[in-house]
Amino acid sequence: MVGAHGGNFYQDFDITWGDGRARVLNDGHLLTLSLDKASGSGFQSKNQYLFGKIDVQIKLVPGNSAGTVTAYYFSSQGPNHDEIDFEFLGNLSGDPYILHTNVFTQGKGNREQQFYLWFDPTKDFHTYSILWNPLHVIFLVDGIPIRDFKNKEAIGVPFPKNQPMRLYSSLWDAEDWATRGGLVKTDWTKAPFTASFRNFQASACIWSSGKSSCGRRRAGSGSTGGDGWFDQELDAASQRRLRWVQKNYMVYNYCTDVKRFPQGLPPECLHS
């Protein structure tokens, strides 16, 4: 019923661009993306998913990574696409990365929350996870939730639940905006920049030929085996961890940016 317990980049992904700058190594257990002045690189999942729990371990570009963006996200296609984003915005040596998150529903984003991390993400691999089920989109770092985008369809907020999405990742140059709003440019003397990926795992509903490998499951219908993610919500301990992260490490929250929304904050911000 639930498919794609991964771990091999040859089996699970296609390199989609970069002209040799993306490489699969170690018999499929490691994937590296590189960026130089000519081009970045990227890959995408062979499968499309409609709900799932996805984990991947990433070691980000070390040193002076200003101007670079390492992105890891779900996305569907078309003008009214859904998207669930992790983006890691590089910085000068010694300054922290910014972890940028966003959720698009039916083509509309503008739901950015940004965080510092409580460790150096360039020194070792850390696990970045997206838990996407019919009730929640939860972003996790090393198993600690940092954001919970809840299904608020009852108050008219669209939720990503009808469009199958592929998983994408890329390393690219965004020096016009990524670091301090574009004030700090990419130092190409430090190129090539490289980010590394390993231990991809998916417990997910695979979408193929108009059908889900999970059938017509509905949230609350009960879980069996290893697919508890389909009904998962944050328990009390996880909610405490979420509050700890948001209190100590959140550096931007669209839900508190009243200048940006002079007509009033988005409805999901008022009914958390």
From TrEMBL:
<comment type="similarity">
    <text>Belongs to the glycosyl hydrolase 16 family.</text>
</comment>
<keyword id="KW-0325">Glycoprotein</keyword>
<keyword id="KW-0961">Cell wall biogenesis/degradation</keyword>
<dbReference type="GO" id="GO:0010411">
    <property type="term" value="P:xyloglucan metabolic process"/>
</dbReference>
<dbReference type="InterPro" id="IPR010713">
    <property type="entry name" value="XET_C"/>
</dbReference>
<feature type="active site" description="Nucleophile">
    <location>
        <position position="83"/>
    </location>
</feature>
<keyword id="KW-0326">Glycosidase</keyword>
<dbReference type="GO" id="GO:0071555">
    <property type="term" value="P:cell wall organization"/>
</dbReference>
<feature type="glycosylation site" description="N-linked (GlcNAc...) asparagine">
    <location>
        <position position="91"/>
    </location>
</feature>
<dbReference type="InterPro" id="IPR008264">
    <property type="entry name" value="Beta_glucanase"/>
</dbReference>
<dbReference type="InterPro" id="IPR008263">
    <property type="entry name" value="GH16_AS"/>
</dbReference>
<comment type="function">
    <text>Catalyzes xyloglucan endohydrolysis (XEH) and/or endotransglycosylation (XET). Cleaves and religates xyloglucan polymers, an essential constituent of the primary cell wall, and thereby participates in cell wall construction of growing tissues.</text>
</comment>
<dbReference type="GO" id="GO:0048046">
    <property type="term" value="C:apoplast"/>
</dbReference>
<dbReference type="InterPro" id="IPR016455">
    <property type="entry name" value="XTH"/>
</dbReference>
<dbReference type="GO" id="GO:0016762">
    <property type="term" value="F:xyloglucan:xyloglucosyl transferase activity"/>
</dbReference>
<keyword id="KW-0052">Apoplast</keyword>
<dbReference type="GO" id="GO:0042546">
    <property type="term" value="P:cell wall biogenesis"/>
</dbReference>
<dbReference type="InterPro" id="IPR000757">
    <property type="entry name" value="Beta-glucanase-like"/>
</dbReference>
<feature type="active site" description="Proton donor">
    <location>
        <position position="87"/>
    </location>
</feature>
<dbReference type="InterPro" id="IPR044791">
    <property type="entry name" value="Beta-glucanase/XTH"/>
</dbReference>
<dbReference type="Pfam" id="PF06955">
    <property type="entry name" value="XET_C"/>
</dbReference>
<keyword id="KW-1015">Disulfide bond</keyword>
<dbReference type="Pfam" id="PF00722">
    <property type="entry name" value="Glyco_hydro_16"/>
</dbReference>
<protein>
    <recommendedName>
        <fullName>Xyloglucan endotransglucosylase/hydrolase</fullName>
        <ecNumber>2.4.1.207</ecNumber>
    </recommendedName>
</protein>
<feature type="domain" description="GH16">
    <location>
        <begin position="3"/>
        <end position="197"/>
    </location>
</feature>
<keyword id="KW-0134">Cell wall</keyword>
<keyword id="KW-0378">Hydrolase</keyword>
<keyword id="KW-0808">Transferase</keyword>
<dbReference type="GO" id="GO:0004553">
    <property type="term" value="F:hydrolase activity, hydrolyzing O-glycosyl compounds"/>
</dbReference>
<dbReference type="InterPro" id="IPR013320">
    <property type="entry name" value="ConA-like_dom_sf"/>
</dbReference>
<keyword id="KW-0964">Secreted</keyword>
